[in-house]
Design a protein that fits this description.
- The protein is mainly alpha-helical and 119 residues long.
- It folds into 2 domains: 1-55; 60-119.
- Helices cover 54% and strands 9% of the residues.
- It contains 5 helices and 2 strands.
- It has a two-stranded antiparallel ribbon with strand order 1-2.
- A hairpin with a 3-residue loop joins strand 1 (59-63) and strand 2.
- Helix 1 packs antiparallel against helix 2 (37-53).
- The protein is globular.
Length: 119
């Protein structure tokens, strides 16, 4: 069922459930306990379910000499009209309007560490 077909209560309940799962995963991470293969598989499955079923666009990037997409969630189809596979290996900066790049890069350069100040 798509998010747009759900009522507000269903969406809130799903959000609460996802937040609880993320909290549980973070507790495992903070505890330093090394999970066994079964726990690791369960954790990976939860993250996969979260990213593949979120209406938010979730991305992972490679930060080598040029920033490139490593993972793009399926929600990019609704948000930007792209298939996730179309973006893998490409720079997100190729998808920023040239006029917006002129505004973005001076802000980026102000931080000196490559992070985006104010974003």
């Amino acid at each position: 069922m798509k998010d747009s077909d759900k009522d507000k209560k269903q969406l809130i309940n799903e959000l609460i459930d996802l937040r609880n799962k993320i909290t549980k995963l973070n507790k495992v991470k903070i505890s330093g306990k090394i999970p066994d293969k079964k726990e690791l598989a369960k954790s990976e499955e939860m993250y996969r379910l979260i990213t593949e079923n979120s209406s938010d666009v979730i991305t992972l990037h490679n930060f080598n000499l040029q920033l490139t997409y490593r993972y793009v969630s399926p929600s990019i189809k609704d948000a930007g009209g792209y298939e996730p596979e179309e973006l893998i290996g490409k720079s997100p900066f190729k998808f920023i309007h040239p006029g917006d790049k002129k505004k973005l890069f001076p802000i980026w350069n102000l931080t000196g560490d490559g992070s985006l100040a104010g974003f």
